[in-house]
Amino acid sequence: MDEVEPYERYSGGSPEAERLVFERLARELLRVQLKVRRRSGAAAVDRTFHAKAALGVENARLRFREDLPEALRAGFARPGAEYPVTVRLSNASGARRPDFAPDLRGAALRVEVGPGESHDLLMTSFPVSHARDAREFVAFAKAMAGADSRLRKGYALFLKLPLAVGWPTAARMRRNVVAGTRRTVRSLALETYWSRGAILWGDRGPVRYQLRPAADAPPAPEASRTDPDYLRRELSQRLRQADVVFELCVQRYVDARRTPVEDGAAEWHEGVAPVLPVATLTIARQDIHTAEARACAARVDLLAFNPWHTSKGFRPLGNLNRARKVAYEASSAHRLGRRFVTVEPRRNALLGAPLRAGFRTVNRFVPWHRLPTPLGLLNLMAFRQTLRRHNLIDTEAHEAPPEAGPVEAPPDEELLVRRSYDGSYNDLSAPRMGAVGATFGRTMPPVYRPDLFDSPNPVTVSRELLRREAFIPATSLNIIAAAWIQFQVHDWVKHKRFPVATRSVEVPLPPGGTWQNTPGGPHEAVMRFGEDEAVPAPGGGRPPIVFASDVSHWWDGSEVYGGDRSTAKSLREPDGGAGLRLEEGHLPGGSNGVPLTGFTDNWWLGLSAMHTLFAREHNAVCEALRHEYPRMDEDRVYHTARLVVSALIAKIHTVEWTPAILATETLDIGMKTNWQGPPKNWLDQLGVWLLEANGRQGIPKTLPDHHGAPYSLTEDFVTVYRMHPLMPDDYELVDHRFGRRLDTLDFAALQGAATEPLIRKTGLVNTLYSLGIAHPGAITLHNFPRALQAFRRDGEVIDLSVVDLVRTRRRGVPRYNDFRAGLHKPRIRRFEDLSSDPETVARLRDVYRSVDDIDTMVGLFAENPPTGFGFSDTAFRVFILMASRRLQSDRFLTVDFRPEVYTPLGMDWIERGGMTSVILRHCPELAGILPRGASAFAPWRPVQPVRNGNGRG
């Protein structure tokens, strides 16, 4: 049987290329499900095929023959072996039509061999498929979806299908369909069912299998032409009188010409491949109308049968079968409410392309931010569509070719209404999507150039272009905005890294330079820090530029709650209480001087204030839930409070922090549109209606949508959120009541182990006030904090600016000019195109050989941003894509953002809440100080110092 493997031919030339084809076809089948539902008026999405069951039982038995030929003894197929079987008999259509309507019939068996081993056998009442391969199969399904009348069927078979597959193929498919459906079926117990494709039969090679009625099966009455359920009634009467018995038979592979594996439309003729009985299937005599039997039938109807639910030795073969794994998994997940499909309105599809082309032309002369606000918003929506089509690159290693495996257990019911600890099961159809350990995606193809890792020398780049020479403030913001974004980034991204002692990156210093890599350590000619841990490629076939995140990719508050069960449990109140542990309103201390919370890297006063504030907020939500719902247990209170606080954080970032740092009317409207839908004026409503009608009520009222690529945050996203210039080097702590200075400290004095004693001494109120009245740094060149260029952490001394440059290079993020081009911006040709400052241009020339060598971070910092923007337009393009994606992909911020999951109180808390309300709930003393009519991230009103009688403070 060594001929089998050569005759498995992969579409596109490789298993991975074929997988991508199958993924696209599976998405098309999901749209077929929706179309059938819409045409049939069904209350819910049904199976793509075999929607109407006539029988579902769990008490059948499969017994292999005592005289099973030696040549067919393999695996579970052993003489005399007997196994319990679940059986489902059905009509083949995806719509629940009357039994007398022309149709094929189907049989699905689940043979339970033992723990962890079962075998799904799927068959249809015609020897061959109407389709040779998956592409033809999906084309037929799309053409026939909703064809529930003779006129529609004719239109589908004689016009839509030929246009999709060609006239000769359409004619062959019509012949097979007509031959299979024109017979009158009297009883499903008297039908023969064929496997439609080959499977391996252990080490005995390929077979096709069939289920045929026992030779002595009683006849059936004439088929009804009026009873829509006569097949079920006939089975009911038959089973009341006796067992229903079938023979399971196989046909063995002969050769590629007469018994092809890849061609699903080719029959294995009995004269070439004889039919060999191997086992008997017995459906026991019973009454299928009892309450117990009806409950059993309902359970069977929920099952997801798939021929890949088997063992490796019995794996399915051929293109159609390989497609079935992806297609059946997607279809089942869609039917069970674990996967979702958003259908783009036809007008959006038709108008989208010309609008995108039109704005591309306009933007050559006028950038989006200089257009009138309504046109600017429309421009951004059009551009976001371009990015979704071209800038979502999946980096996960997927199963290709498909692998057989056991039936997966359904998700824990609790995971339907709460976030998991590690981000798994957010997408119920892909449980590991976005979870801890999921890989960072890409917004553009990576560029892996080990020869340029140290060129130009990153230490030189840092000293010439990044080092802060004089503090440049961002006067439209306060330092809480700087603390906030670090608070958020800790929730979103963290690369896995080797300890520096295990595996390090060594960056050579310029000639004559030295560096102390540990406090008080020797002077060395290299800087040293821990290397990122790359994800190995299957078979070692790609460079080491795929990395996994040590935190989940979802907006789930993991920086507060932790990213695993053990951490989350340790942060809760004793004895399973719902609240987070606090000591006199502050985070409890840890053994290393840093407090106990979900994420403590790079700890400093601003982070401590954010963590303390939202730990208190969690406890306030818990208290409100207990009061409103006294019967709710503490575990449910905890998880509901986590949902509420995480969603509130997402809302604050979307509608408050983002418009504060990107302070334009266009962005203010755009971000609020993401959360709550467009303004009620007709022009904004029209724009959304034209381009993205599914978002007319805001993303939280839509279905999850990954836009063609599994959800992940990307390496490019990590790059544009390198915002360390926001951090000042020195800080003034001020009393909020009298405006009196309490202390002036450098960064070293309020970070690491020094943080918690300081915030307890200063108090949360004075800490927030001190950060609220001071400005962060501007995100620009020559403004990287000096304190972070000799930053002590975990026994190391690092220059964080050098680390940022080196990690970006080593992660394969394209250099700045390629980065621009990847985001559909014109390349720069001269250094003067990047900056209008002559000194900066001169330094760029000194450091870089050409504009194509400019580091991404340097280019992003050097750009002149749009008016009101706190960072560059190039960085903003990644933001456009990811800002909505983080909401749109998340089940708990879309389809499950509802009172049944969050509780009515929780929904109201989020609706009414914001950064100002959170601060005032826990620091009401600040009510007269926070900005009026602006977000809490805008500069606060400083209290004038109280002076004594002689005019001095």
UniProtKB/TrEMBL annotation:
Residues 566-586 have a biased composition (Basic and acidic residues). It comes from the Bacteria. CDD domains: PIOX_like. Signal peptide: none annotated. Its cofactor is Ca(2+). Keywords: Dioxygenase, Fatty acid biosynthesis, Fatty acid metabolism, Heme, Iron, Lipid biosynthesis, Lipid metabolism, Metal-binding, Oxidoreductase, Oxylipin biosynthesis, Peroxidase, Plant defense. Residues 46-144 form the Catalase core domain. Pfam families: An_peroxidase, Catalase. The keyword Metal-binding applies. Residues 565-587 are annotated as: Disordered. The keyword Lipid metabolism applies. PANTHER family: ALPHA-DIOXYGENASE 1, PROSTAGLANDIN G/H SYNTHASE. This is Catalase core domain-containing protein. It comes from Streptomyces nojiriensis.
